[in-house]
Design a protein that fits this description.
Keywords: Membrane, Transmembrane, Transmembrane helix. The chain is mainly α. It is 69% helix and 3% strand. It has one domain. 23% of the residues are buried.
Length: 244
């Protein structure tokens, strides 16, 4: 029984590593954005995840009712339910991987002289190992009734907290995708500069942004706001009659 449980935990870790590597290779920017969002505001991400979980089923009900209004929509109900399930599962998976990366980088550090991708892979590996150790401990303690029940409860609660924080970070990062893109350099400079690599709160001004005084801004219908020319003061007279 113990060997079977340990093999199941090891298999889950292996599957998580494979999915994490695939996500890191194909959606590195999204994964790092979610990880940065979770690292900056853990409590906010947690409550956003709780709210998302509470609204998940009502949203599905509203979606199915909206599809059932028309005959064509009735035929699309299975597709809509499947799309909802896949979107929720994908968001939870991405969030868990991002929080695991944050945990791994907190435990093992970024490493000196390593690239952003290698540092992310290292943090992801260490974080998934840390999550697996919780379940390994619960599996080892399963032989003792009381201790095993407490260890299993701790493992479930810890996993739920990680998934909730990750889900909330996904929601928050997707809502603020434009702000995150500007701050992390998608629209200017390198994609992830040295300042963005430090997972710390950044200022409101982006890397290549220049603040322009509000009094010298004029709106244009196409290009947005541009700086108007400051009026030049007329030269003062010399005191002769020509000035009049």
């Amino acid at each position: 029984m113990l060997a079977t449980t340990l093999m199941a935990v090891a298999g889950t870790f292996g599957i998580g590593m494979v999915i994490g590597i695939v996500v890191l290779m194909t959606a590195e920017e999204a994964l790092l954005a979610v990880a940065k969002s979770a690292a900056r505001d853990v409590s906010g991400s947690f409550w956003a995840g709780v709210l998302t979980q509470l609204l998940a089923v009502p949203f599905l009900v509203i979606l199915l009712v909206a599809c059932a209004i028309t005959i064509i929509g009735i035929l699309a109900i299975p597709i809509a339910a499947l799309a909802w399930a896949l979107a929720l599962a994908g968001a939870v998976t991405l969030g868990v991987l991002a929080v695991a990366m944050v945990i791994g980088r907190a435990v093992a550090g970024r490493g000196t002289g390593s690239s952003e991708r290698s540092a992310a892979l290292r943090g992801l590996t260490v974080g998934l190992i840390a999550l697996s150790l919780v379940w390994f401990g619960a599996a080892v303690a399963a032989g003792t009734p009381l201790v095993g029940a407490i260890a299993r409860l701790v493992a479930v609660a810890f996993t739920w907290a990680v998934a909730t924080v990750g889900l909330g970070a996904v929601v928050k990062s997707r809502i603020g995708v434009s702000r995150l893109s500007v701050q992390f350099g998608r629209f200017g400079g390198s994609r992830f500069s040295a300042g963005a690599a430090k997972w710390a709160p950044s200022s409101s001004t982006g890397v290549n942004e220049v603040q322009v005084p509000v009094s010298w801004q004029t709106p244009t219908p196409v290009m947005g706001v541009v700086a108007a020319r400051r009026p030049v003061d007329a030269p003062k007279g010399t005191g002769s009659g020509a000035d009049l």
